[in-house]
Design goal:
- This protein has 369 residues and is of the alpha/beta class.
- The chain has 15 helices and 10 strands.
- The strands form 2 sheets. A 7-stranded mixed beta sheet has the order 6-5-4-7-8-10-9, with helices on both faces. Strands 1-3-2 form a 3-stranded antiparallel beta sheet.
Length: 369
């Protein structure tokens, strides 16, 4: 009996020790995760700074890998600071290293940075990085206030009123071009997936409302050679689009000046609202969709492009973060597929299809019966 009690006591102690170790491992995992979350801003600022200083373009222009001293001299920075920045970029897998014959560490771009962080790359996200660094990041600095107040933070971040959202967004010509370059880079990468999520070939006349730089319009006419696309946007946006983003070769793309809330919409087979509705309140979304419905030709429709939250609000994390971004920067929010369906049916659209297009965005095609 004593031996049996001793055995039971030993097994109990083993189980207790195992549970303690498991609890300790879980706590370690939790603490590491929290630390990683706190370090997230350091990661983004490292990326922002390397792009702003021109590290990736400078390394690409060189015919061979460079030392930290050579990069620092070429970009006019301190040797110590550049050395630390390059080292962190190696840790982020944005740069790779090799050693020279005399033992110096030499740096060069990775495939990822060459593809997405050089200004000259067709898939460049440089302008997206730049916008996040100079605009989005400053608004997010006031996230606590945004959560408390339930409104965007342009006034605190930039000293401009956000009573007119796009007057705040386009508060200078430089800022407007920066935003347009951001959207251009997004649709250069994601646009083809968006316009091929459904067969749009039956729609010959397409209006891209808030079409900005015309990048999505270019994807449309590339995939569907029988269609024409008209970009409708604010006058100063369309002027900049003509000057910087469209060329004489874009013959099937035209531009129309206007405010889609204030001006009448022309008749069209298809209207595209790509990352538009997430900027606005439910009331404004209904008003705009009602105008679109009235202007749709029989059998026509609207194509919405948005990042969708899951129906139980459990994710995806990227879209949850985008919704916070809408809080600090706009009047809107990210929504579920069912919420967009409700908005569309409320104004008359009867046939609604939803399709995931790539890793981030979903496409909703709603047809007028």
């Amino acid at each position: 009996m004593a031996l049996q009690k001793a055995s039971l006591s030993f097994r109990h102690t083993q189980r207790t020790n195992t549970l303690v170790k498991m609890a300790g491992a879980k706590e370690d995992g939790y603490s590491r995760r929290i630390m990683q979350y706190m370090e997230g801003f350091m990661v983004s600022k490292t990326l922002f700074t390397a792009c702003e200083l021109g590290v990736f373009d400078y390394l690409n222009a060189s015919e061979c890998p460079l030392s930290a001293m050579e990069v620092a001299q070429g970009l006019g920075t301190s040797m110590d600071g550049m050395g630390r920045l390059l080292s962190a970029c190696v840790g982020l897998e944005l740069l790779t290293t090799q050693h020279s014959a005399d033992g110096q560490v030499l740096y060069s771009n990775t495939e990822m940075s060459t593809m997405f962080l050089m200004k000259s790359s067709p898939q460049s996200l440089y302008h997206s990085v730049e916008y996040n660094s100079n605009t989005t990041y400053l608004c997010w600095h006031n996230l606590t206030d945004a959560v408390r107040e339930g409104k965007n933070q342009y006034e605190k971040a930039f000293g401009v009123s956000s009573k007119d959202l796009f007057e705040a967004l386009y508060r200078s010509d430089e800022e407007m071009v920066r935003f347009m370059q951001l959207m251009n880079s997004v649709w250069n990468i994601c646009g083809k997936d968006v316009v091929t999520a459904f067969d749009l070939s039956p729609f010959k006349s397409i209006y891209d409302l808030g079409g900005c730089s015309g990048a999505l319009a270019k994807q449309c006419v590339s995939v569907y050679p029988e269609c024409t696309v008209t970009i409708l946007d604010l006058p100063k946006v369309t002027e900049t689009c003509r000057k910087h983003f469209l060329s004489a070769e874009d013959v099937r793309i035209s531009i129309c000046e206007g405010d889609f809330f204030k001006n009448a919409l022309p008749d069209a087979d298809l209207f595209i609202l790509a990352r538009i509705l997430h900027d606005w309140t439910e009331k404004q979304c209904r008003l705009l969709l009602a105008k679109v419905y009235q202007s749709c030709k029989p059998g026509g429709g609207v194509l919405l492009v948005e990042a969708l939250l899951s129906e139980d609000n459990s994710g995806p994390l990227t879209v949850q973060l985008y919704s916070l971004d809408m809080l600090v920067q706009t009047e809107g929010r990210e929504r579920k597929g069912s919420e967009y369906t409700s908005l569309l049916t409320a104004v008359g659209f009867s046939t609604i299809h939803i399709c995931r297009a790539g890793n981030i965005y979903s496409v909703i095609l709603a047809l007028k019966g």
